[in-house]
Specification:
The complex is a heterodimer of chains A (about 325) and B (about 110). Chain A is an alpha+beta fold and about 325 residues long. Chain A contains twelve helices and eleven strands. In chain A, helix 3 crosses helix 4. The chains are: A alpha+beta (about 325), B alpha/beta (about 110).
Chain lengths: ~325, ~110
């Protein structure tokens, strides 16, 4: 039988999401149901022809829907070497076949791939009928599709946006040390404001405030949300950053430029110099902050000069 | 002097060349991104050793167009990709921020 390489997932301690996926998915969810099979009356040559036509390297041998064995390319080669390619398949098929049950969690399938190193595993139902076949390719495709769904679900919960005429409300969820995500709110905000022809200076002030507040949550808090609301009628952009703790010990100190509790690693990324809150306050027309061990709430507002956005329209 | 004249003038290698060329107004030199956000005003080039995806975000945020990475610091692939997405150019030099800034300052000051 051809050998499938191991699937590089540690089935003992993968990430919680992958653990959930490989237990939630059953073998029947990933298996191929359209089976190419041969019978005991077929010759090795017939089996080889079927493999060639279907681009597979092994096919089950069945009688009704009972699995009797598997003929693989290796078996075909053995028959060729013996000069007996026209013999019926039972002379060369592999009889001791490792099978999976359709009700097993996918994690079993992955462990079997690791343990037995076969390229394919026939799948039987509870009545011992052959109902499918699983290759490492089937598993990878199924996992990719599921991971894609999970990522989409995650993105949906991370970002919320509402538009109302020229106005908009945008909210992003931040997570501790998730530097990849941080900055996405300010980038998107900047684009939305640009579409609305706001003065570049205003856009920049809003972007600086949102970026610093996002970074602050990523660096210092356990995570939270940052929300930007543009209210054209009130001529202002409001930014509200709320996290879930652990709070700022001394808010006055935190507003002092240069005061920082960030570690070396954060500093090596170009942040954590104690400029986040002072920068935010400097670019804001109104700024207030409250903090307790339960969390920190920052509200910053930037006024839009009345004539400018209209003039730019 | 145009932005696109920089690589030849300062002997820079070009890492990411998809950006909008413009007349070079000035540059800002800093490795501290919060400092860049606070103080880089009306500049087109950020001279830094901070080569990270976040540098691209901050560069667009302050309205600059090119990141000039000094000391031949490695530029991660995801940074190049982010820069391409935001039309931010990336140049690189083996020289330090001090040397590059000094030379560029002289170039811009000379008539």
């Amino acid at each position: 039988m051809s050998r499938g390489g191991p699937i590089p997932i540690d089935t003992d301690a993968p990430s919680p999401l992958i653990t959930e996926l490989i237990y939630r998915l059953k073998v029947r969810d990933v298996m191929t149901r359209e089976l190419k099979t041969c019978t005991v009356e077929d010759s090795i040559r017939d089996a080889q022809q079927t493999m060639k036509e279907n681009g597979v390297t092994g096919i089950p041998v069945v009688s009704d829907s009972r699995l009797l064995g598997i003929v693989s390319m290796d078996d075909v080669i053995r028959a060729l070497e013996d000069g007996r390619i026209d013999q019926p398949v039972p002379h060369y098929m592999t009889r001791s076949v490792i099978v999976l049950e359709d009700d097993m969690p996918l994690s079993f399938g992955i462990s079997y791939m690791e343990k037995y190193r076969y390229g394919r595993f026939p799948v039987l139902d509870a009545g011992k009928n052959l109902v499918g076949i699983v290759t490492s390719r089937d598993i990878i495709i199924a996992l990719l599709l599921e991971i894609n769904k999970e990522v989409q679900r995650f993105e949906d919960t991370t970002r919320q946006a509402e538009t109302d005429g020229r106005g908009f409300r945008l909210e992003y969820t931040t997570r501790k040390f998730d530097f990849e995500m941080a900055g996405r709110l300010s980038t998107e905000t900047k684009k939305l404001l640009k579409d609305r022809n706001l003065p570049p200076k205003i856009m920049r002030r809003v972007a600086v405030a949102t970026y610093e507040l996002e970074m602050n949550q990523v660096v210092h808090s356990v995570g939270g949300t940052v929300r930007v609301t543009f209210e054209p009628d009130n001529h202002e952009v409001k930014i509200v950053a709320q996290d879930n703790g652990p709070g700022i010990e001394n808010v006055e100190d935190a507003l002092d430029e240069g005061f920082s509790t960030a570690n070396e690693w954060i500093r090596s990324l170009g942040f954590g110099a104690g400029m986040g809150l002072p920068n935010t306050r400097r670019v804001s027309d109104s700024f207030d902050i409250s903090s307790s061990p339960e969390g920190t709430l920052v509200r910053a507002t930037i006024h839009i000069p009345m004539e400018e956005p209209d003039a730019a329209l | 002097m145009q932005l696109s004249d920089l690589p030849a003038a300062l002997d820079l290698s070009i890492i990411q060349d998809q950006y909008e060329d413009c007349e070079l107004r000035g540059a800002y030199t800093s490795d501290l991104l919060s400092d860049v956000m606070a103080n880089a005003d009306d500049v087109d080039v950020l001279i830094t050793i901070q080569s990270h995806k976040n540098t691209v975000a901050v560069t667009t945020l302050v309205g600059a167009t090119v990141i000039l990475v000094c000391n031949n610091r490695p530029v991660p692939d995801d940074m190049v990709e982010a820069a391409r997405g935001e039309s931010v150019g990336i140049f690189r030099s083996s020289r330090s921020q001090f040397e590059i800034s000094g030379e560029l300052y002289r170039l811009l000051a000379s008539p």
